[in-house]
Amino acid sequence: MDLDALNVVGLSTACQEQSNLYFARQSFDPKYCYELFRRAIVSQSDEAWTAVYQQYTPLVKSWIHKNSLWQSQQAAHDIDEVVNRVFAKMWRCISIEKFTSFADLASLLRYLQMCVHSELVDIGRVAARHTAVLESETLFADAESDVPSEEYQAHQTSASAEQEVTTAAQKDALWHLVSAKLNSDAERIVFYETFVLWQKPRQIAAGHTDIFRNTKEVSRVKDNLIARLRRDRELHQSLIDLSL
Amino acid sequence: MLEQKLLAQLYRHQCPSSEQLGEFYLELLSETATVAVQDHLTACPHCQQELQSLKRFITENRLPYGLGAPAEPVKAPSVRVLIAELISGFLPGQAASAMTVRGQIDPNEGPQVYGAEMYQFAIEVSEDLNSPLHRMITGLMLASDPEMPVDQVQLIENGVSLHDAEIDEFGNFVFSQVNPGLYSLQITGVGIQINLLPIYL
């Protein structure tokens, strides 16, 4: 059958028939489903995209259920919403030019499968960051608070600790600002692994036995560093300037 | 507090996005981006873990045979089909219950052993402790043909595959949260398919 002669409804029907054969482990022809993806992405046909969505939603849902990350997320998230975000991610990530990298239906479905995992990872990253910040409230609560400026203290009361930085450039600026204030490899490691990776002193010590003799030494470097950063008026002012 | 603000803003700020990590695994990134992700992976336990879980997810849910060539219809490979029958479902000297005789597995009865040629599987049905209204099917492959290994199990109801499971390296597989009903199990490997007689749960 000539693919060009088929409209989206015809393609969608053929794709569904062939998919049923495929899942019944019989001979099948993947060209209809591939063409449906091609029209959705390259020809930017909304109708074709809707057909792709309808055809592959059950498969995407089954993948979500089988993903181990979903076990801890399903209570707090609506699966239909996650399915929507998976398709949206695929739509966003595969440009017309990039479509040429996908030679067959298998590669497209593998990408869709990757998007399922990616979406669940995104949910996990947000939750992990939230957990890290909550943990840090307890961990840092006992630390001595050294003279932050009044202006900064006033700013603090109106800003949430979890407030999002609006741009990656702001994060980079903050990173470079603090990096310039680190005086040794030990401080650089402790800062990076504490604030970027959220590793505990025990984990940091275990990963850098050439730098730290034990966990206590990591904690000492960390406490001194935090105390110094707290006293740093330039850092406080910069945080205000960056609206953090 | 300053520390929390730093943590909230800098936590994993240098990590590649989850899509970049996925495209790295699928080898879709440019050479420069691939090197950058590789470098990052050497120092980031979080991304290492996410990459591992992606590999596991794609491997465990690999698309079945032959999904590939866009131009030519795919021929299904020839598959040998066996029917596994009930060999034993009770301890020596113990009479089979009426439920066993009519193909129904009593959740309290213990494993039933099914066999076909060199393949043998013990299937046990129990109450699903995490979900009281459901059943759990636990399987163990007791013997197989080393020339034709099997590694996948599908739980089928009315001809439709509801769930699938991997047979692990020790021969185990599990289906949980199964509604009571009539099911069959289909165990497959490359070129081999073993159908277990339908069972009532």
Main features:
heterodimer, A: 244 residues, mainly alpha, 2 domains, B: 201 residues, alpha+beta, Immunoglobulin-like, ten-stranded mixed beta sheet, 5 helices, 10 strands, 25% helix
- By CATH, the architecture of the largest domain in chain B is named Sandwich
Largest sheet of chain B: 10 strands, mixed
- Integer average pLDDT of chain B: 79
Which two chains share the most extensive interface? A-B, 72 and 49 residues
| CATH topology tier name of the largest domain in chain B | Immunoglobulin-like
> How many β strands of chain B by DSSP?
10
Helix-and-strand structural type of chain B: alpha+beta
Radius of gyration of chain B: 23 Å
> What is the share of helical residues of chain A?
55-70%
The number of domains of chain B is 2
H-E string of chain A: HHHHHHHHHHHH
| Helix coverage percent of chain B | 10-25%
Rounded Rg of chain A? 26 Å
Low-confidence stretches of chain B: 68-76, 90-103
Helices and strands of chain A: which structural class? mainly alpha
Distance between the termini of chain B: 57 Å
Strand tally of chain A is 0
Task: Describe the protein.
The complex is a heterodimer of chains A (244) and B (201). With 244 residues, chain A is an all-alpha fold. Chain A folds into two domains: 3-128, no CATH class; 148-241, no CATH class. Chain A contains twelve helices and no strands. Chain A has helices at 8-23, 31-41, 46-66, 68-71, 79-93, 105-141, 150-158, 168-179, 185-196, 201-207, 215-231, 233-241. Chain A starts with 7 loop residues before the first helix and ends with a helix. Chain B has two domains: 2-60, no CATH class; 80-200, Sandwich (Immunoglobulin-like). Chain B has five helices and ten strands; from the N terminus they run ααααβαβββββββββ. The longest helix of chain B is centred in the N-terminal third of the chain and has 16 residues, at 45-60. The model of chain B is unreliable at 68-76 and 90-103 (pLDDT under 50). The chains are: A mainly alpha (244), B alpha+beta (201). The interface between A and B is large, with 72 and 49 residues.
